[in-house]
Design brief:
CATH superfamily: Metal-dependent hydrolases
Strand order of the largest sheet: 1-2-3-4-5-6-7-8
Shape: globular
CATH class: Alpha Beta
Low-confidence stretches: none
Structural class: alpha/beta
CATH topology: TIM Barrel
Strand content: 5-15%
Length: 283
């Protein structure tokens, strides 16, 4: 039996790994609880067994994500879209484990962003992913990471898409919003993944925990909802499961937050990504 929540239900950031994880079974769980739409972000390259040496090495990671999205779309009442890019944690893997200089890591990661933006430009992906480490790093690595993020903003402005960011925990990222604006990208199209209930600067993609969602709902500001489901059998309890967003939507509706649900699942996706979660629902 599938629950109908009488609204589009979008998980803004999760991963699918049919090769190692639950794959389409996770999508089926999402659908049974009332989920309709997904933004599927490629897993970090090294978790798919790819140790990048040049920008072209990212393409198999992107292609695997695009294939998973196609299968997910078949199972969804709505559809899924790919979000492609380079996980900011790669910089540490390159510099600390593989002997790259921060500058060499920056160039390789910017090349990966360039490759991802080609998929956006030809309509095979919806948005880019970038950011900076959420843990302490050297000044040189921090500067390299900020340069990669700026490059992602430049590419997004050029191809007309949004950017999802992985960053440190913060409720004030006006510095990154200012960088986006300086290169011609609307800061509203910069999305902070794993956000708390409120955020200055980018649009928050709020982790679907009740306290965070309540703050977002009551703020009156644009927001999205996510789980960051990692689809890793070695970390089954990591982050939130695929059933969480539809469960939290039901809770928000029962708590009287109908307007906030529409904001998170219809209005903000349209404003940030240019997607219509109502028109893409099956009749």
């Amino acid at each position: 039996m599938t629950v109908d929540l009488d609204t589009p239900v979008l998980d803004d950031h999760l991963h699918l790994d049919p090769r190692h994880g639950r794959g389409i079974d996770a999508v089926d769980d999402f659908v049974r609880l009332g989920g309709t739409h997904l933004l599927v972000v490629n897993k970090p390259s090294w978790l798919l067994g790819v140790e990048v040496e040049e920008p072209e090495d990212f393409r198999p990671v992107f292609e695997e994500t695009i294939d998973a999205v196609a299968d997910a779309t078949e199972a969804l009442p709505g559809r899924a879209w790919p979000v492609l890019g380079v996980h900011p944690g790669l910089v540490s893997r390159l510099v600390d484990d593989r002997g790259f200089t921060p500058g060499e890591a920056r160039e390789l990661m910017c090349g990966g962003i360039d490759a991802a933006s080609e998929y956006v430009e030809d309509g095979r992906a919806l948005a880019l992913k970038s950011g900076r480490p959420h843990y302490d790093v050297s000044d040189a690595v921090w500067d390299a990471s900020n340069a990669v993020t700026r490059h992602a903003f430049e590419r997004a402005a050029a191809v007309g898409c949004a950017v999802q960011l992985h960053t440190e925990a913060s409720e004030d990222l006006t510095d990154l919003a200012a960088v986006a604006e300086s290169v011609g990208l609307d800061p509203d199209r910069v999305v902070k993944h794993y956000a708390a209930g409120r955020l200055a600067g980018p649009t928050p993609s709020v982790m679907s925990e009740k306290d965070r969602l309540e703050r977002a709902a009551e703020s009156g500001e644009p927001f999205l909802m996510e789980t960051d489901f990692v689809d890793d059998p070695d970390r089954p309890g990591m982050v939130l499961g695929p059933k969480t967003v539809p469960r939290r939507v039901r809770w928000l509706l029962e708590s009287g937050y109908e307007e906030a649900v529409r904001r998170a699942h219809v209005e903000t996706p349209a404003a940030v990504y240019g997607i219509d979660t109502e028109a893409t629902l099956d009749d």
